[in-house]
Each structure stands twice: as structure tokens, then as C-alpha cells.
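request received
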Amino acid sequence: MSISIHSISKTFGTYKALDDVSLEVPNGSLTALLGPSGSGKTTLLRIVAGLEFADDGPGKILFHGENVVSVPAGKRGVGFVFQHYALFRHMSVADNIAFGLTVLPRSKRPPKNEIRDRVHELLGLVKLDGLDKRRPHELSGGQRQRVALARALAIRPKVLLLDEPFGALDAKVRKDLRRWLRAFHDEIGLTTLFVTHDQEEALELADQVVVMRNSRIEQVGSPQEIYDRPRSPFVYEFLGNVNKLTSPDGAKRYVRPHEIEVVFAAEYDPVTDRIARIQHLFSAGPVATLSVRLDDGQFADVELSRKQLDDLGLSVGDEVAIRSRPEEV
Amino acid sequence: MSDPREVTTESRPVRIALITAAVAVLLLFLLLPLFAVFAEALRRGWEVFMASLTEEAALSAIKLTLLAAAVSVPLNTLFGLSAAWLVTRFRFKGRALLISLIDLPFAVSPVIAGLVWVMIFGSKGWLPPATLEHLLAPFATVASAAAESENFGGLFEGLAAWLKDPKFIFSTPGIIIATVFITFPFVARELIPLMEAQGADQEEAAVTLGAGGWRIFWRVTLPNIKWGLLYGVLLCNARAMGEFGAVSVVSGHIRGKTNTLPLHIEVLYNEYQFSAAFACATLLALLALVTLGLKSVLERISGHAAAGKH
Amino acid sequence: MSKRRVIPGFGLSLGFTVTWLSLIILIPLAALFLKAAGVGWDQWKTLLTDPRVLAATRLTFGVSAAAAAVSMVLGLLVTWVLVRYSFPGRRLLDAMVDLPFALPTAVAGITLTAIYGKSGWIGSRIAASAAWVRDTWQPGGWIGEQVKTWAEFGAAYSSFGIFIALTFIGFPFVVRTLQPVMEDLGKEIEEAAATLGAGRWTVFRRVVLPLFVPALITGFTLAFARAIGEYGSVIFISGNLPMKTEILPLLIVSQLEQFNYGAAAVIAAMMLIISFALLLVINLLQRRLDWQNR
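response:
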């Protein structure tokens, strides 16, 4: 099911949290809302869920073409996974997952054994078999996360919404769960929208990345597009390391460290190259980073492979020529 | 006990001096009074003690005390739940004002809490008994008719009799309503910080899963706040049974009729029946001890629940 | 659309809360203020300049402030010991701190009188010491008068007795507001201060104590507010001598017993206005301190 967001605004008191935001989330996609804190991404997610309401106006939210603005959260058919999971502390894992089914009106409620089967099916799906009797506090962070996911999926939602799904987890679990969620999404194919402030997470996980800033959408595109062709200095800087350089003619240029080529000073080509001196050299790991000082006093970071570094045989204090086709923004 | 090189504690003599001082304060202030209640009560022997407790005026005072608590505690529990739900689950204009108004009775002297009702229902008040009788006359007729019905008339007899001669001051309803005023914030006070700290996440999750209001309350909210709620009810009850100033103002001290247990104690004391006064006081002291005991138990249980959260 | 709320029950809880609040608290208090306003300016003036009322006001607010201040010191000591040290009986004492909350005030009143009155365990000793001081030094003035009363009645029938009762009632407020703050204070901050070379007393005075100030003020305020209105635990020990040991709540009761509704309402209104104003000032002061600590 696709989600279309049409000119949604939201004000809290005098603070404008969303300013005329429109967005298409294609059916079956995994879309990331990426931005720094306070950019409005969580507010947008909550409005889609029906947990927050947009300002009066022409704003519309369409699920597969149908306006859901006046549909209450419980009837929208969204699965929502909260940042801190919001598991019901006093219920077992199984009861948590079954909750959405047991609160259905009697006429629509599946019989007990069907609910039990569904819970076990979901536990299998999120790889938590055998943990049905545990209480939330007896689980690890990653397990709680998956219980929250299973609970959201139990009601067979039309769309899945996740608020900072990995925010509360430590680095290792985060990475594993990220891969798992991607595979999981490919398996069930549910239209999914998630909020994150971590660019790496968004780029690795999503089909479509929506960069938000100051209550507006800055750019929408595939991870590749966003990374390679950022539309604004903000997007450039927000997605990974970047050198901000001023050309002799005064124009500001952005260039990513791995886009700079290093050659011997002897091969200096005055048209494309600049002379630089190596200030620091970090060579732990497969990628080496050079910190260089340009002839006009500016600093830049350069990334190159270990092999290249070894081939060039560079050390601190050497003079080199750096070559790049910096993009003007 | 601890390494002398430890930087975050005091030297042993200082520690011992501080502990001694604090324990002395607590013994003098807490245990001595408690001990004194029982010692004074039993000073003239077990028989006097038992006789003072089983005398008719004492029994009726106990009954009235229980009645006042039985009415005011449930009412204020309901209010506490409603108020806590309102101010922790919604943001609206006037919310801060409402929170401070809920706390207002804490800043009002018990005597004033009784006085306000005299101002309203007293013979020189805004709604004196004569006016009230006039206003309630239609209800009185209905109630009298109901009281005459064969099946359940008994239930209405008391009400019908009261409606015919509606008095708040110097009568049981006045005592109840003064107790309600005094115990007003107790449950709300416990629940508001608790529910605020828990946040609305779980309720929101239940909403996205399609649950309705009552079901969210019973299945999600209530299980999470049950210990805090019980704690509030416990404190509310202790205050309701022990309240003195407010009920003293509205009661009129009619022996065997409008005396609660604390008022009965005062009457006995002023009549120099010290042993009897302290005998009745032991009941309230026991109530206090039971309250403290249950409170500790609840703190331990809910402490565990809170620890399990992480 | 923006008026919609996600969690249900707004209307119901708003309706019930506001109705109940109005019926039980707001309308009755308004009735009191209306009655007080209705007696007219002249009677206000007469009452507020009446020496008996003035004496009761001074006594009530003065002794309440003194008791709350002492509660603060005792509370700090007791909390520190309960939180920082372990010793046999600590848990029991910790649980017992709430006794003054749980013990009905009338019981506290007669019990404290029994202990601190002339024939009580402590009162008899106070009386003996005071008699000795009176006979040895024969002090004059206000102190002489106090000593004479103590020698005669122990701690009862004097402002000292009221002070004891109000401190009993007040000090748990300080302990219970301070305790969580002290428990949450990690050892790190003290360790940091110690590594910087500060001695233990300096650490306490310059690092730890300032962090307790907001909680101490809250505790003081709660104890003070409670003390101003306190009735049950005071009237037995105070002896209720007009001009000497008569507190405001008692003055209200005696006006009421003489069917001076207007006078009772005026004194009550004045008392409420002064306490609300004091609480407001302390609140503002604390907000400022809180802000500074951030």
C-alpha cells in the first residue's frame, strides 16, 4: 500500500514542526526519514500513524489513494514500533503480541487457538521462538525490539512505521538487526517508513531516503542519488564526511575525501591539481586517511586505500599534488 | 566496614557521631511517642483498656470513622484516577493551573476545610437547612415513597429521613464531606508523577493496535499503576480515618452520634479520662503502623517492578 | 481537526475532574471568601488590628517558620545518615520516618502532651532543669517568663510545646523530599571533588550541600505550610491561652463557637491569603535556584 502525504503542516504553540510537507512513499518500499533532531521527522511519522494531527488546512494523507486524515489511529491499519518499544510491562511476550487481536470487537476477533497460532507464527518470523512466556524486562534490547515489531505486525497492518528503530541499541546489535530488518522487509514486502538520525543506517537500509531539515523536506531519492548528487550543502554535509574548499576564484566547493586523488608532487598539473603537505596520516584499517594542508592554508581530508598509500610510500611532511573534480553546489 | 582511604565517606568517629545523633532524634521523635500511646493506654490495666474500647460511644465512633472513610476514599480514588489521566495524558490550556488547584487542599488548614462547609450549610450559611429542605422537598417525597415500597424500602429509609430534615452541619453528611475535602488530593498526588514518568507510549501503542478507551485503561494503564494507586488509597484512607480538625468543626461533638474516633479521643481527654482516651488512640496508632507496614511492602514490590523496567 | 486527541477519555476525565474539583474545593473556598468579603471593610480593619488576632498570627507564622527551619536541619541529618550509612535498624527507622504522616493528629497531640507535659518523661526533666535555671540565675524579661512557664508545666502550655508538635509534624516532609535527591547523587561528583584536593567537609559544604538546597527549600515549604494550618497536634499541648499560646486555627474555632461566622471567615481568609502568598514567594525563589543549578 502506498502512502501519499500532501502539504502537511504542524505547529506546536508557536513552533512550526512541519512546514507544508509532501511526500510519496511507493508501495512495498522501505523509506527512511533522515534528519537531525528537531527536523520534524518523528512528527511526520506520528501524523501518518494518527498519533498526532496536522494543522487544519488542505493537508491530506492518502493510504493507497484513500484519505485517512479523519480515520483514528486504531482504525488506520498501521503497525507502529515505538522508539523505546512501549511494550506492556506487565504482560508476557505472547500477550503483548496478541493484544491487538484480543481487543478486536467480538465479531471480528479470531478464536483463541487462532490467536495462539498467529502469535507463534510471528514469534517464528522475528526469530524469538520459545520466548513467549517471558516478560519484557527479561529480554535484551534487540529482542524487545523484535517483540515490538511482532506486536505491530499481528494486526496485519497495511503499512509499518518505525520510530528510530535502532536508536536504543548498542552498536553491534544495531548492525545485525539492520541487516535482519532489510531481509525481513524483502521477505514480507510491507510498505515501511522509518525515522532515523543516522545517515549510515538510512543509506544502508532504505530504498528511498527522505532528508529532512528545519521542518521541511530537503531531498528525496535513492541512497545512491542522495549520496552522489546532494542537492544542498546541508545534504552534502549530513551524509558522510566532506571537505568544504574555497577555490582561488572564491567559489565554495564540496568534495568527499575518497574523491580526491593523490599523486607525487612531481606530477603536478597546474590545471587540475593543488600542492599540499601531509600533516597527519591515519592508516589503521583498510582505508587510510590523510590530513593535508593546501598551499593556501586550507585543510582537507583524503581517503585512499592502504595499497595506494603503500605504493606511493608517503609519510608525514611529504609534499604531494591532490587532484579532484570538486562539485560545485 | 569501609576502607579508611575511601574518599566519599567520613572518618569513623564522625560517622558514629552522626548516626548516634540521627538515631537519637528518631527515637525521641518517633518511637517514644508510639511507645507512650500504648504505655498510657495500659496504665490502668487491661480491663479498663478493653472497657474503653467496647463502650457504646467508642463503638459508634469507630462505626462513623469507618463510614466516613468508606465514602470519601472511593470518591477521591475515582477523582485521582480521572485527574491523573487528564493531566498526564493530555496537554491543554490551564493544565498547570489545574495541577496546582489539585494540590490546594494541602495548603488549607483542616479547620478551614471544616469551616467552608459551615459557611455553606450552617444555619447562617448560603444554603441553611431550611432552604435545603425546601430545595430537596421533591426528592424527599420520592424517597419516602420508595421507602414505603415493600421489596427494598429498607434501603431508602435512611435517605428519606435525612431528606426530610437535611442537615450537613452537626451531622454525619457534614463529617463525610469534610473528610472528602481533606483527603481530596491524596490519590491524584501519587498517580500524577507516576503516570507522567511512565509516559503515554504504552497507551499510544494500544491505540495503534485498535484498543478502545476503557480497554486501554483496564488492560494497559491500570496494571501499570496498580501499586501506586494502592499506595495513594492507603495514604488517603489513613488520613480519612485520622482526620481531626475538619471534622471537629462540623461535627458538633454529639456523643454517640457525630463523633469520629479522633473526636471521641478528644472528648475523653478533655474529661480527664486519660486511659480511655489513650486506649482509643491505640486503635489509630495501630492503623498508622499497619499503614506504614503496608507502605513499606508496597514500596518494595513496586521498587522491584520499577527495577525490572530496565 | 487539531482539537482531536489520540488517547480517548479527554472529555470524560476533564468533566469529572473539573466538576469534582469545583464542588469540593473551589466553590466552598469561594463561599468562604465571599462571606469574608461580605462583612465589610470596617470589620476587617477591626479584626486585623485586634491584639488577640495579631498575637495569634505572629505566633502561628513565627513558630511554624521556626519549626520548619529546625525540621530542615534535623531532616538533613536524618536523611544523610539513612542514605549514606548502614547500621542495624536502618530500614526500620527509615520506614518509621513517615509515622507523623500516618499518626492521626489528635493521637500525636495527646501523646506529645503526655511526654513533654510536666509529668511526662521528658517534660518532667525540662521542668526540673528550668526550675534550677530559674532559681540559680533568676533570668528576667522574655526568657525569664519562658523559664518560669517551663518550670511550672514542662514543655506544655508554652510556645515551646507548639514548636515541638510542629517539628514532629514537619520533619518527615524534609526527609522525604531530600531522600530521592540524595540517593540519586552519584559518588562521582564527590570523587571528582576529592581528586581535586578538597577535604571532606569542603566537599560537603561546597559541592554536595548546594545540590540539596532546592529539595531543602521544598521540604521547608511543605513543613511550613502544614505547620501553619496544624490543629490537632497543637491544641492539646498548647493550653490555648489567648494572647499567649492561641494559634490561628484555634481562634477560628472559638469565633465559630460564638457564632461569629463573619469573624471566623475573615480570619480564615486572611490566613489563606498569607499562606498562599508565602508559598508563592518560596516557589518563585526556588524556581530561580533550580534554574541556577542547571
